[in-house]
Amino acid sequence: SKYDLLNVPVTDDRNRLLGVITYDDIFDVIEEEEHEDISYIAGTGEDEPAERSVMKAVRERGPWLMLGLGGSIGSAMVMAAFEGSLKQHLAVAFFVPAVMATAGSVAIQASSLVVRGLATGSFALQGVPIVLWRELRTSVLLGVGLGILLGLFAFVWMGNGALALCLLSALGLVVINAALSGTMIPLALKRVGIDPAVAMGPFITT
Cα separation of 206 and 202, whole Å? Predict the structure, then answer.
């Protein structure tokens, strides 16, 4: 790709020609890796749909869906701990889906950039601290901006300044947390030898 070559010679340690890698060989590898990564992202396994039995599909998808369900149960337990507050301030519950959905979207965006950077090797040149510092600054700006938008909407809709300030703070903190999680989880998986593509989808959104 760097030198626009159609084929590349393969030599041994004494520079004797062993063979040639052609562009169509590389294309096959790219296609195979892309298929594998998309399957990991979706949590559906690597087999073609036509070749996969029902029970095998259940075994491959089940663990990821159970992980997602576990995260949802954890969220429900956290909300249950604030049941009294939610009863007193019911309007807060109206905005919980918006905050959670925004966090999931931010985490997926961040992890997608990291996975792509790891795949292309660009992060190896920049270094992890630089990536984390850039993502932290980005998440702060996004969190503040989105928090202000949600706070203004809540104030116009509900006419409650305290609620607007609460939502502004909550969304800001959640966006920062989601962006950092979406950045650090793929990096951590890469460090322990796991394909970071698995960090996408159910894992990151949970």
Answer: 6
Amino acid at 112: S
CA 13 to chain centre: 41
pLDDT band at 15 (very low <50, low <70, confident <90, very high): very high
Residue type, 100: M
Query: Which string of b and e fits 153-173 if b means at least 16 CB within 10 Å?
Result: ebbeeeeeeebbebbbebbbe
Rounded distance between C-alpha atoms, residue 123 and residue 191, angstroms: 13
Report the candidate in 46, 44, 22, 25 with the shortest Cα–Cα distance to residue 34: 46
Whether 161 has a pLDDT exceeding 80, the answer reads yes
- State the pTM of this model: 0.69
> How far is it, in rounded angstroms, from Cα 22 to Cα 9?
9
3-state secondary structure of 17: strand
pLDDT band at residue 72 under the 50/70/90 scheme: confident
The pLDDT assigned to 47 comes to: 57
Burial label for 54, CB within 10 Å (0-12, 13-18, 19+), is: exposed
User: Does residue 200 or residue 100 have the better pLDDT?
Assistant: 100
